[in-house]
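note to self: dont lose this again. the chain is below, predicted strucutre after it. 358 aa total, dont forget to put it in the shared folder this time
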Amino acid sequence: MQAIFVDDEARILSGIERALMMQDSGWECRFATSGHEALSLLEDTPADVVVSDMRMPLMDGAEFLAQVRNRWPGTIRIILSGYSEPEATVRMLGVAHRFVSKPCDSTQLLEMVANALALRRLFKDPVVVTLVGKINQLPPAPKVFAEINRLLANSGANPLEIAGLLASDPALSARIMQLANSDWFNRGEPIHDIANAIIHLGQEQVKLLVLASQVYADASTDPYVDKLQQTALRASTLAARISRRREREATAALLANIALLIPELRTTCDEATIEQDDIPLRAAISAYLLALWGLPMDIVEAVAGHEQPSRSAEKTFGMLGVVHVAVTLANHGVPDKRYLEQTGMLDQLPAWQEMLND
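---
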């Protein structure tokens, strides 16, 4: 596996190199002191993951990673930053998959790189890797976005009302979860639900994130996005009721079909599968995107497997089963009755259907 580290401070790179020597990773690592030098290295041999400092002369990290995204979209992009001015944060949100605060312990950084490379091994299909690599922004539902902007402009707005609206939209929820689970804001346990993520970030960062979505939202007049948001919200609400208000199930159900926000996938997702594991392309891309953005792996795994729960080694009705039932029913489908019978939950199906009707 190929990794490139970019920082204009040679001592930072030396520290990373020393940490690498102490572990037998088997990675092929290269080092560059500028974005231009790193681009030359990539032209020679593309990398699986690139880690770049943000504040560099001539070409900063955001500009460098934008070129990486455009030319090598399959490369996982991680950015290091010791400052967070609003303009810089918006630019970084547009090009990086993961965010790491600086100064950063080299061992901790290499652990994040190892996790990113493990993702690449998990999702090998070039279609998934390339499509997801190009994505850094998804369109929020226009109606939800307009209402959130109206509330954010009102200094007396109820924070709970803002949180409720944000939690109803898959695109905005995914970005909030991405930022809240990043090293910038979270050094403890993974955050599984939108409400805690919003509290963790604070209202000013939430405003910034919504602002970063403005251009995409202005460009999106597709009623399909509104329809997807409504269906995702139904699935999330049903998952919460089935699981007795467990937040992680509700979040996974809300984000399960987030790949459908990518316009290029809408005509191919329903039929295409990844040949290696026969995973539906829609589920694989949704899971890979959420994993790249650093969401908790139990949510990622539930999204990846929710369309075919019978293939899971887990034969009890847990998070995967809840997400499968909620998303399938919300999309007017029929849950896998064989799976429900195997897990002893088939007799609950009428009650779940009644919950959805309510």
